[in-house]
Structure formats: structure tokens, C-alpha cells
Amino acid sequence: MIRTAILLLLTGIFPFHANLDLIRVDGGTISGTHAGDIHIYKGIPFAAPPVGDLRWKAPQPVIPWSGTKQCSTFGPSAVQGAPLPFGPWSEEYLIPKEPISEDCLYLNVWSGAKSAAEKRPVLVYIYGGAFAGGGAACPIYDGTAMAKKGIVFVSLNYRVGILGFMAHPDLTAESKDHASGNYGLLDQIAALQWVQRNIAAFGGDPENVTIAGQSAGSMSVHCLVASPLGKGLFKRAIAESGAMFDESPATLKQAEERGAAVGASINDLRKLSTAELLKKQWQGRGPIVDAYVLPQSVSAIFAAGKDNKVDLLTGWNEDDGVDFSKKTAATFTREIDDEYGADAVKLLNYYKVKNDADIPAAQTHYSRDIVFGVQNYTWAGVQAAKAGKVYVYNFTRKLPASGEYIKYGAFHTGEVAYAYNNLNFVKRCNFTTADFKLADIMSSYWVNFVKTGDPNGKDLPEWPEYNTKEYSTQLLGEKIVTKPLPGKQVLDIIKRHANL
User: Fold this and answer.
1) How do 28-31 and 23-25 pair as beta strands?
2) Would you say residue 387 has pLDDT above 90?
3) What percent of the chain has pLDDT over 70?
4) What is the 3-state secondary structure (H, E, C) of the chain?
């Protein structure tokens, strides 16, 4: 016994608090590592590996193991293309190069609790990646800093791309729920169900869970708030740069047709290697209206008042746009004219389009508004109209980058390292005292919201609740100020033309 304890200490597995040393979860007993007084458990299986006959099936129960599973390294990321830096996204924002596998249904827990009886609030983070990539092992999603502020932080993997969202007539026929296609969302739901059953053992409170995500992760949060399967799994939502109001997800029938075009027989598709499958041409992209996870479109569910009731913290970034196409001022102007008619002049004045030199900034900001801004603006308005608690931000800090990264400013995903107090993982920036202060404040806002549904707290700049009279928005930059929502008039025009 003494020898075992010494070995555990030498290998860094033995935590500081003995009653969190070995934890019983679904499937068996696990151990972890620690960073100071924070206990870290990586690569905990929350479902059976979705391989072989379980490829394109809803997540199945964990396969039990004997002895103690050492959970000290991240599980494999979901199958996707190689993580190659592009645009503003350097390696800090990408998954590790390996491992990547179909056997990917693992989650991670960070907790500073000294006993299982503490009932700390829980944040469950869902990554972005356009529903085609991403993973919980990205450096900027580390949960240590948030756990130090008193919450239990959980991150999870879910299937993406063709393995996460392909529907097929054969899959629908074999499903007891008569649905197929939303396997990535079902993975997220299975992880949240795991949290309900197991998080108390880590000192977490299953009755005080917040789901959070960015980009496709934020869209996932929106879907989970809309889904009847999300009922009782969380009480708050953080949605950073993404929602599904302006999306037109495929119906089950449309998605089945796209799947059938990949292969007539699902049995044959299950026999393909992962590499062979990735070579297949598939026309899908993300969640569908499958009559099960999403009985209707997210917009229709919210319009009918059938969404799960949550407190909401939401917003987007000043330079959130992700349009890398190259256009001239004439082309951009013509497209705006065609889309907005009599309203085009207001938009062109707002985006300051006079010549070709103005186009890069104009494209970025227009893309920001039509892809992200109008989505989260719509959700905030719906929430406020229902007398729901909602707080809105705009992240305006242009990251102090160098070289080619200077031009990206407050780019899409740029706020994540601030919100989760992980600037130390971003190596390409010469962060200043102002940056570390902003990260400390933002992460405190996020933690307070997770704890109580209100981001405000001692020594923090006041963040007023959002409503449809003042439209008070917290501008999170080198200085933190409250102003009426920037660009509201343009967002209203975009919203009206999109019939939101």
C-alpha cells in the first residue's frame, strides 16, 4: 500500500485531497492528475466507442472496465481533416495533430473541490469548428483557471462531419426513434446526461449546470436549448458568436437523400475504413430537423415557446467575420444593392465602402453581422421579450498580435482565451497588463453567471441586464464600457430582410 502511494505521487496521479483520489463513475473507477489544488481528469469515456456497428448510432452506454482507469491524457479528437493553421487560427486554436479517431467520446473534468459534498456550479463547454472539426483538447479550452475561480469545468468531444451528422434511409429505419443525422448533438446530450449522473462525485452540483460554446459550439447550445431532449440537463446558457435563427437546416428527408448519395447501403458504408469514408462526397453540414432531437427548426421551436427556459449570456466579436473571398468595391456594392434594395445605402455607409481599399474591413464586418451578429441579436431579443434574463456583450479587444496576425483584430474565436482566462496558451501575442486584466474580468463575469445567472460581482464593472428599450451591451475591450448595442440599426435591416 505504501509503495503504491509513493508510485502514485511520483507519477503525479495522487491528488491533494484523498477523497477525490479515486472516483467512481459510469463504467468503473478513475484517477487523475492535479495542477496545484485543481484535480484534473482527462479522457473519461462517457459512451461506448462509436465504431464498427455503432458507427452512425446514438451513443451507447460506457463499456465497464476493471481496476482503476488512469485519466491523465485527453481522449482522441473526433475524425476530421488534419489540423492545419489558417487565417487567424494558429495551433493554439486547433486540436493536437494526434490522436484523431472514431473512438472519440470522452470528456474532461477540472475541479478544485476538496470533497464530493461541495456542490460547486458546473460549466460544460462545447467546442466550435463548423460542425466539421474541433475538439476538447485545444489548448485555449483548458479548464484550470476557471476551476480556480470556484466552478467545476467540463469539456466534451462529439462526432463531427460525415460521422456526426449524416442521415440515411437505412439509419432512420434501424433507429427506434425513427430518426438519423444528429449524432453530434446526441453525443452532447449523452455527455450532459453523464454529468447529471456523475458530476457530484467531483464536487459539482448537477442542479446548477451551464452549457457554453463558441461558433458551432454556440449553435449547438442553441439547439440544445431548443431540443426536448435537453430538458432538465442545464439551467443556463452561454452562446458566443453563433445561433440557428437564420439557418435553414435540412429536413430528415432531404438529409436522407444526401446520405443515400454517399452510399446506397449503410452496411457497406460501415465496412469502409475511416480514410475511405472521408474521401466520400457528402453535401450535409451540421444539425438537421430530424423530428426527434429537433422536432422543428430552432426558429419554430422558439416561436412556439417550446424551448427550454434558461438564463442567457450571449454576444459576438467586433471582427467576427470569416469571409476570405476577394471582391472589389463594385462587386460588394452590387451584391448589397441586390440584397437590400432601398436599404442598401444605409449599409454601405455603415460599412464605409468607397473604394477597393475599404473592402477587407467591410467584408469582415458584413460577414460578422449576417453570420453571427444578427443571430445572437435575435436570440437576445427573443429572450428579453419573454422576460428572460439576458446579458449581451461585444468583444472589441484587437489582440496584440505580430506579423500576419495583426490584421485579424478581435477575430472569430479571439475572445475564448480571455473568457476562460487562458492567455498563457496563446504564444503569438505580446499581451499587456490590460489584456490580463480583461481576461480576469471576463472570466469572472463568466464564472459569476455560471454560479448565479448574473455576471456581476465585487470589483467588476457593472454589467446591466439587456432589454429591448436600452439595448445595453457590455463592450469588452481595453476599457470596459456599457453602451447601446453597436450597429443595431444595420442589424435590424439585416434581420428584417432575413425574415427573422
Assistant:
1) antiparallel
2) no
3) 96
4) CHHHHHHHHHCCCCCCCHHHCCEEECCEEEECEEECCEEEEEEEECCCCCCHHHCCCCCCCCCCCCCEEECECCCCECCCCCCCCECCECHHHCCCCCCECCCCCEEEEEECCCCCCCCEEEEEEECCCCCCCCCCCCHHHCCHHHHHCCCEEEEECCCCHHHHHCCCHHHHHHCCCCCCCCHHHHHHHHHHHHHHHHHHHHCEEEEEEEEEEECHHHHHHHHHHHCHHHCCCCCEEEEECCCCCCCCCCEHHHHHHHHHHHCCCHHHHHHCCHHHHHCCCCCCCCCCECCCCCCCCHHHHHHCCCCCCCEEEEEEECECCCCCCCCCHHHHHHHHHHHHHHHHHHHHHHCCCCCHHHHHHHHHHHHHHHHHHHHHHHHHHHHHHCCCCEEEEEECCCCCCCHHHHHHCCECCCCHHHHCCCHHHCCCCCCCHHHHHHHHHHHHHHHHHHHHCCCCCCCCCCCCCCCCCCCEEEEECCCEEEEECCCHHHHHHHHHHCCC
Tell me the pLDDT tens digit for each residue of 303-345. 999 999 999 999 999 999 877 777 899 999 999 999 999 999 9
Catalytic residue (one of 111, 215, 297, 299)? 215
- Cα separations in angstroms, 133 against 312, 349, 414: 26, 36, 17
Confidence of residue 354 (pLDDT cuts 50, 70, 90): confident
Q: Is 115 noted as a catalytic residue in this protein?
A: no
Cell 455560471 locates to 450
Handedness of CA 141, 143, 149, 150 (dihedral sign): positive
| pLDDT at 5 (0 to 100) | 40
pTM above 0.90, yes or no: yes
Query: CB–CB of 223/200 below 8 Å?
Result: no
Least confident interval from 48-52, 280-284, 438-442: 280-284
